Amino acid sequence: MGYAFLVAATERATILECGIVDVRASGTAAERLLAISEALDELIRRHRPVALAVERLYFNKNAQTAMRVSEARGVALLCGARAGLEIAEYTPQEVKICVTGNGRGDKKAVQRMLPHLVALDAPITQDNVADAVAIALTHAQRARFAAAVAAAT
Question: Is the dihedral of CA 4, 32, 108, 61 positive or negative?
């Protein structure tokens, strides 16, 4: 599971921290979910975010993969709710439109756009980390837009 913490107060967001929640593949499903929960709780305690943005599930042909993803996503939602965070969900198409301008863009297109949207020390090559940064950027853009609309009304 990828994660990203951004400061998006300026036009170009800054990454505070991003990476992979690493869990042992040899553990049971319950042990892996517990490890994800503990890691996310620690990240939330350390960074004190105001929001948690996650990818909304979409149909996956592989039911086993879809179940694992939905379980991990559920743990993330639980951790965010327990911490009192605002929760936002975005479809893969919404994220691709926000980051690449095209809802049909592939993962490589998202990775190519990230250096133009967020200050990076090095290119992000891991798909799950790039996805997490892209989801966080999508939320930051939507939040800025919502604030501008609220200020105008």
Answer: negative
For residue 112, what are the domain limits? 2-152
Half-sphere exposure of 135 (CA within 13 A, CB side): 25
d(CA 121, CA 110): 17
Whose structure tokens read 């200050």?
A: 119
pTM check: above 0.85: yes
- From residue 141, give the alpha-carbon distance in Å to each of 12, 101, 137, 146: 10, 13, 6, 9
* pLDDT, tens only, 121-142: 888 989 999 999 999 999 998 8
Q: Give the CATH number of the domain where residue 75 resides.
A: 3.30.420.10
Cβ proximity of 52 and 80 under 8 Å: yes
**DSSP secondary structure letter of residue 20:** E
